[in-house]
């Protein structure tokens, strides 16, 4: 998808350097993917301790298949 953005030149240079990509498109895509991945991990960590799981492997092992 083509998009026109006005971005800081130094920020773009840093993204290209940090990602190791040679093209601007690949560098920005990689940076956005990483940002989204970190946000999702953050959301999962925030949920820690809010879900009650019962770890009863014996019962699960002997359940009848559906």
List the keywords:
66 residues, mainly alpha, 3 helices
Written description of the protein model:
With 66 residues, the chain is mostly helical. It has one domain. 59% of the residues lie in helices and 0% in strands. It has three helices and no strands. It has helices at 9-19, 24-46, 57-61. Helix 1 (9-19) packs across helix 2. The chain is elongated and about 60 Å long.
**Tally of extended strands?**
0
Determine the fraction of residues in helical runs and give it as a percent range.
Answer: 55-70%
Strand content: under 5%
Shape from CA axes?
elongated
Using only C-alpha atoms, the radius of gyration works out to 21 Å
The secondary-structure element order is HHH
Query: How many H/I helices?
Result: 3
How far apart the termini lie comes to: 44 Å
Q: Specify the biggest β-sheet.
A: none
Unreliable spans: none
Structural domain tally:
1
Protein structure class: mainly alpha
The averaged pLDDT comes out at 89
């Amino acid at each position: 998808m083509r998009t026109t953005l006005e971005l800081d030149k130094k920020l773009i240079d840093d993204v290209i350097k940090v990602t190791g990509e040679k093209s601007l498109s690949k560098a920005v895509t990689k940076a956005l993917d990483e940002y989204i991945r970190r946000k999702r991990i953050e959301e999962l960590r925030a949920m820690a301790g809010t879900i009650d799981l019962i770890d009863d492997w014996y019962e699960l092992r002997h359940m009848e298949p559906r």
